[in-house]
Amino acid sequence: MRHDRHLAEATTDLERTARRRAAMKMGWYTHALVYVAVNTMLATLSMLGGKPWAIFPALGWGLGLAIHGLVVFIGTGGGGFYERQLQQERARLAKEGSL
């Protein structure tokens, strides 16, 4: 019985982690889509006005988008730092509980 409960908890943890990672990736894709749409509009307005000011918001926001992408795709890929810390804390708590 104990093994079955542990297996169910592990499956729930995997599902929760998978859902969280998928949500983070969807958040980045939404961010990128809004970035493209808004900066296309700004570039159009900039060209119509004859001054190339739209590059400045595109560069600033692009930096934010790049950092967001690094966090989502590199920071969580293949068992990121958060997951390792979480596993260490679970092991520590399990050890304390068995004392």
Shape call: elongated
Share in β-strands: under 5%
**Number of helical regions:** 3
User: Biggest β-sheet, characterized?
Assistant: none
Number of DSSP strand runs: 0
Mean pLDDT: 85
Order of helices and strands: HHH
Helix content: over 70%
For the terminal residues, how far apart are their CA atoms? 22 Å
Give the low-confidence spans.
none
The structure class reads mainly alpha
What is the rounded Rg? 22 Å
What attributes characterize this protein structure?
99 residues; mainly alpha; 3 helices
Structure explained in plain terms:
- By secondary structure, the chain is mainly α.
- Helix content is 87%, strand content 0%.
- The chain is built from three helices and no strands.
- The longest helix is centred in the first third of the chain and has 48 residues, at 2-49.
- The chain is elongated.
- The model has no long low-confidence stretch (mean pLDDT 85).
Secondary-structure map:
Layout: H1 2-49, H2 55-74, H3 81-98
Helix pairs in contact: 1-2
Q: What's the gist of this structure?
A:
The chain has helices spanning 2-49, 55-74, 81-98.
